[in-house]
Amino acid sequence: MTDSPRVPALPVTFRPTRTRAVLLSAGLAAFVVITAISLMLQLGGGERASFICTAALFLGVLVLLSRPRVTADEDAVTVVNLTTKRRLAWAQVLAVHLRPGDPWVSLDLADGTSLPAMGIQPGIAKQQALADARALRALVDLKGVPDGAPNGVPDDAAGETGSGTGK
């Protein structure tokens, strides 16, 4: 892909929509099935409650796994991972990386650290994740990356490169 990525209108939220739908559907279905089974079996109150609590715990874990997202607005980017939420000013984000084989995007930060952004992950929607990563990179380029700083989202559709500027 030789065209520069399109900068999305702000605010914008990136999340693995298909993965989220699968996780929430599977969790809800498992909760309903396990609860129904516990009600159909001739169990005591405590056993039935343990079935339902186990189903609720399973659903809770899947809801937690479906939580990640990356939200960009005029002032900052907010990265929500499984158990953490971090708001970063645009100037704090130096580069966006999604290399072949990476489970999700990582952000290089001005303090020298790297932050995983699990809201953009190529799991079952690789092309969407690449497009989202390019859009986030375009926003970083527009909002806060100093001139000449590298960012590592590939411009090609196959995602074969990723450590250069990608421009």
Query: Which structural class do you get from the secondary structure elements?
Result: alpha+beta
Question: Major beta sheet, specifics?
Answer: 4 strands, antiparallel
Strand content: 15-25%
Order of helices and strands: EHHEEEEEEH
Q: Alpha-carbon distance between the termini? A: 10 Å
Q: Portion of residues in helices?
A: 25-40%
Q: Specify Rg, calculated over alpha carbons.
A: 20 Å
Q: Numbering strands along the chain, what is their spatial order in the largest sheet? A: 1-2-3-4
Average per-residue pLDDT, rounded, comes to 86
- Total E-strand runs: 7
* Approximate shape: elongated
Q: Quaternary arrangement of the chains shown?
A: single chain
Number of alpha- plus pi-helical segments: 3
Name the poorly predicted regions: 153-167
